[in-house]
Amino acid sequence: MPFTEVLKAAEKAFKELHEKGSYKVEDLKSPTYQKLINETQKVFDFAIKDNDIPAEMLYKLQNDSFIFSGLKTHAQLMEAASLLRDENGKIRSFDSFAHEFNKINENYNQNYLEAEYQFAVSSSQQAANWANLDDSDRYYLQYRTAFDDRVRESHAAMHNTTLPKDDPFWSSYYPPNGWRCRCTVVEVRRTRYEMSDSEKAMKSGELATTQINKEGKNKLEIFRFNPGAENKVFPPEHPYNKVKGAVEVKKELENKDSKFSDVVQSLKDKNISYLEVKQLSKKLTDNEIIEKIGGGDLTSGSCSSLSFAYAGNKHGLDVNDFRGGDSRSFFGSGRNVETISNKVGGITERDENDITAVRKLIKNIEKNKEYILVTGQHSAVIRMSKDDKLEFLELQSPTSNGFKPLNSDILKRRFGCKKSHTTYGMKYKAPSTLIDIDNLNVDGYSEMLGYINTATDEQKKGSKGRTR
């Protein structure tokens, strides 16, 4: 699996590290380093979300993967920082540093990340499995391997281990029990299976998670944890936790407010009602999302909040709009949208001519990605089509929603872009903003969307509505 965005983010992080000439824990607040943390967390979030996990557990697993991503970023920056200076204590040229950087980048963000991603897939699956276990005493838990020629002998020794859910064996040896472990656990009826010897099972588990390295330390002991019982994706004793400064990093990450905490507080201060946003039961296609949230607009114009709602659905969140009122006014404010954009690395261009500003913004667009464009008097999701044509997403039509061509004429007619802006006879530069939808998939976004989310019977849309 390629991790292109993570590798790119790491490349920028190492360039900034070289420019600064040093690294300390406080530097993690840098937007460039935060970008690496967020891109790494997105990889793990993709693995976690593809499971039927209770909301409370899902939040804890996502938080754990975020902290792990921060610790991972800290570890590689520490390693790279140790290579910045030559034997005379002088900062090396970037060219001489680049070779080591490429090695670190490949190790951390391709080789290690591949194994960590696979572990996150397995770990989150087993956590979901644990959360959905029957609470009655009718069942034992039974350890199962993939039962093929790739199974490790030490794991095969645990196959069919059958014990009650509260047996201490499951606290330490509930799978996964190593990198790329494919073992699982199933429920079996007590009346049909004989209970295993707990002491023997513990010895088998201990053997499966023991491998002494050159320093005399057991490198597999970190896997002795239960993802579901502890609400953890990754081993709490993973080496990233042992890097110098990791304690401070972890404390900072654990105490960190969500990206949108101040935006949410502003929404609360305005007494805008909140409707919890839940996970979608299944991933929706683009057309299914458009059908779900689009429609003739009966509000004063919900283009901006609709764009945020679309982004939420793309990230697996069940959110609808056409609420109108104070919610529409808040998310329709250019100043508020720019605040949200700044929190996730959005780009704002100011120009007297809106179309000139948009032309500057679209230079940042990449294929196979979607963005929210806010310019003139309109906001919409945009993308580059397969044949290199710009498209925008219409969501406010009573009859024809979907992606449509975007050109200068559309920018004038649909977006209301102007060649110049004046106030009291004076020209001024108006802002146009571009937000990468992928960057909205961060802690706190679903909470913010709760102030957009609208119950089906309260949505102000229909055949009598119109594009606004």
TrEMBL record:
Q: Which Pfam families match?
A: Phage_Mu_F
Full protein name: Phage head morphogenesis domain-containing protein
UniProt xrefs under InterPro entries:
Phage_head_morphogenesis_dom
Q: Where is the Phage head morphogenesis domain?
A: 96-185
